[in-house]
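Our consortium's second objective concerns turning raw sequence data into structural hypotheses that experimental partners can test. To show how far this objective has progressed, the report includes one record in full. It was chosen at random from the queue rather than selected for favorable results. The single chain below, 102 residues long, was entered without modification.
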Amino acid sequence: ALEDECGTPKASESVTKKLSEKKLNDKVPIEKNPVESSASDLDKQIRELSREKEILQAEYSKAPSTGNALLRKRREEVETRLDSIDSEMNRIKLRIRSKKIS
């Protein structure tokens, strides 16, 4: 059986890889019409992005800094997605602030 040192069952590498790929592809949709989005919609987007960011940061911290080309590519993909999440979160926060001022 596949278990870690504590006896907790762990997923196979293929399952883990599929979940990782799914996480990167499940991006939060960007609002097409930012003027009409409510504060609660923006808050929800921030929460979803924060959750995705936490998951990716955990994966990134566990990934070895050295390894084969596939591991390096995955680590690079995670870095890129984390950067785009940060950018999107900053845009949303600016929109929230501008709504409070208006």
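The partners drew two points from this record. The helical segments are 13-25, 39-62, 69-101. The radius of gyration is 17 Å. Both points have been shared with the crystallography group to help prioritize constructs.
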